[in-house]
Structure formats: C-alpha cells, structure tokens
Specification:
Blueprint lengths: L1 H26 L4 E11 L3 E7 L2 E3 L5 E6 L7 E6 L13 E4 L4 E3 L9 E14 L2 E7 L2 E4 L2
Parallel strand pairs: 1-4, 3-10
Antiparallel strand pairs: 1-2, 4-7, 5-6, 5-8, 8-9, 8-10
Length: 145
C-alpha cells in the first residue's frame, strides 16, 4: 500500500512539473530588442548612418531599446511614430536618446499582433552657425501573428 501511495505521489509530482514547464514555455520570456544607431554628419552636407536591426520583430511583452553609438558625431536623436499612425506601446514617442542615455518602449501590449508599425529616427546635423540639416531614417517595427 505504501508503495502505491508513493508511486502515485511521484506520478502526480511529475505530471505537475511537466504542466508547469509547458505553461512557462507557452508564455515564454519577455525580451528587450536593442536597436543600435550610428549617425555621422559628413562634409558636403552628407550623412552616413547605420541602424541595426533595420526591421525590429517583437512579440507581445517585449521591449525595445534604441542606443545611439558613442562614436556618432550627433549628440542626440529622437524616435518618433509616423504621423497619424498607431503605436503599439503604452508610452508614446518621442523617445529622446543621447550617446550616454538609451531610451525605449517597454512591455508591448499583448493585443498588438500581426501588424507593421512605422517609426522614424531623427537627428540634426549642425553644419555651421547658419546651416543645419534634419536627418530622417525610416525603418519598421513588425509584430507577427
């Protein structure tokens, strides 16, 4: 009798453990996607930039963190939602980013699925006391189904 009770108890514990692992795997863990941005103002009113990844793919609950490369020769940038477009995070842009202070969107609303959101990264290239240019970089944010 004791062995049956012991075996039944072990079976229940194994079953409960498997159920718990399954539910944790289904929920997944939330991630933070880093977006690395470098913007350099060049002579002759040129601009060089990189933005990696170009298309951000996030799952419900994920966050995004935009980082301005410390080697960039602009000191700050903004992440802005495209005008008239919805935004999937509770805290709406603009997100102000400096070379020493990343910024971003936290905890994507789980109801936001199967959509592409458009945003832009902007910065200002100061050429001289009288001339400046606004740089607009236009990548995408993708939330799969």
């Amino acid at each position: 009798m004791r062995i049956r009770v012991l075996l039944l108890s072990v079976a229940v514990l194994v079953f409960a453990t498997l159920q718990l692992e399954g539910s944790t795997g289904a929920q997944g863990t939330f991630a933070t996607v880093d977006v690395d941005v470098r913007i350099d103002c060049l002579a002759g009113r040129g601009v060089s930039f990189s933005l990696v990844p170009w298309s951000i793919t996030v799952k419900p609950g994920d966050s995004i963190n935009w980082k301005l490369d410390p080697g960039s020769n602009v000191t700050e940038m903004q992440v802005v939602a495209k005008q008239g477009r919805p935004w999937p995070y509770g805290r709406k842009p603009p997100y102000n980013v400096t070379r020493t202070r990343p910024a971003g969107a936290r905890a994507l609303d789980p109801s936001q699925r199967g959509r592409r959101y458009q945003y832009a990264v902007t910065a200002v290239c100061v050429r001289d006391a009288a001339t400046s240019d606004t740089v607009i970089i236009d990548p995408d944010l993708i939330i799969p189904r």
